[in-house]
Amino acid sequence: MRIRHTAAVAATMLLALTACTSSSNDDGDTAKPTEAAAPSYEITRQDDTGNQRQIVVEVETTKDLKAVFEDVADGLDDEAAYFVTINCAEGGSDTADNRLANGRVAVGQMGAAATGLNEGDREFEPLDGVTCP
Known about the structure:
The structure is a single chain. The chain has 3 helices and 5 strands, in the order αββαββαβ. It is of the alpha+beta class. It has a 5-stranded mixed sheet. It is globular, with a radius of gyration of 23 Å. The N terminus is likely disordered.
């Protein structure tokens, strides 16, 4: 008798927890958290060899630069140190870009050694007071 009571209480608690953590939309589908999509960007340079690789990204706006960086970083899987530069597509010149942010990504031991970050870590640093014309 005691075993049945304990099992019933456990089942009831499980159902209660499930009901509290589940949500659905009007179609009856379970809602899943979604990540905000990165704004439009263009990779204008991406090194594909070497232990230290440069990636240059151009954007039209300063909105969600971190999301742009994360989207670029998510696609990196070769073991290397990646140095990401995010520039505004407008306002630069032949001798100076219109820098908005910098980032580093350490993929594997080589990436960690070259960036000074731990393996798998990322560092994003937006520049203060910058704008995109």
